[in-house]
Amino acid sequence: MRGLTCLALMFCVGGGLARAAAPEPVERRSAIVRAVERVSPAVVSVRVTMVVTRQASPFGWFFRDFRGPQRKREEAQSQGSGVVIDDRGYVLTNFHVVQGADRILLDGVDGKSYEADVVGTAPDHDLAVLRCRTKTALSHVPIGTSRDLMIGESVIAIGNPFGLSHTVTTGVVSALHRTIHTEERDYIDFIQTDASINPGNSGGPLLNVNGELIGVNTAIYGHAQGIGFAIPIDKAKRIVDDLIAHGEVRRPFFGFDTQALTPELAASFGVTEGGAVVSQVAKEGPATGRLRDGDVIVSVDGTRVVDDDGLRAMLGDYTVGSNVTLKVLRDTKPVDVVLQARELSGSQAMQRLRERTGLELEHLTSQGGSVIAVKRVQSGSPAARIGLQRGDVVRAVDSQRVADLDAFAKALARSYWRGEVILMISRGRAWQQLAFKL
Q: The pTM is what?
């Protein structure tokens, strides 16, 4: 009876069964959710249309009528991602997303579509800047920094994988300063992440948990499974500024040359983890009075230098006006050297060509037009050993036709960071491509 009395009291108090206090609601809007909500309006799907011209059947002329075209024009489409980086409508994406585009459409998360124009491209860096055709201010992503990224730090990728618009994936920074080897070229200093980055994600943003842009996702590494790569935003910003201001990337000139650090040289310099040896400092260049012949460069802005080819690739990611800090070993003692990149002038490019190849060129005009011709070949030089002669004509630099020395020098400067230039030379009716080290 006593138990029944207690039960009756439970029913009576409050007019019903006693209820346990409800738990406090858990806050589900995490930092990642808030970052995605802020940034999604600034992410666009990039749709590219290319007009592909195909040769008609070689036997088509048997059956043609006078109205029929001899070539077929077909439209091919590809998709990628991009991110609006300021309220003027500039959009950052990968070069391979828009390569060969005849028409570019940007689709926002709100369903609106805009046409866009290419402002400039940087194929060697796999970056491109577009501009949206709109007078309305667009939402844009806040730009962060990749300088202080931490391995294990949470990151967010937003993009258009396999046409699935505005897909969000998360992960962590798996590694920094990765080098990616592809059939076309080597890509230096990438962020590695386990956030899913698939075809269609290319050009989309990699964000930190504050919703700041820290990298540009790229899906260039086809063998990766569960591994994604992104171009660090600090590198991308230098490229973007040049593309917006000049429509192209101005190649930097630091005013020194290096040679390979052989095991013998490494032992004599006391170097154990790679580097590059300064072999020559240009007169009146950025390195004059700062670097010396025999200095061993071991890092660039804190990133270790593996060899002289790696150093060339790393410095090629800077633009004119950029400052770079080199750590060098001088008489086995570490020294920090700060250099500011200058633009490689036409005269400097031509001087390097003379020094490396033994070629001296001149611009000739005649009734047949103007050409660039070999004026002199230094005895015993690489050009002399190949057999080049006075009067040979230079038709192209790296497959780019050139008609005067200014155009030649500009094209030559672009070749500088590859360490090699390919010249198309003609003599009479004979044409030949020749490669020279720079």
A: 0.74
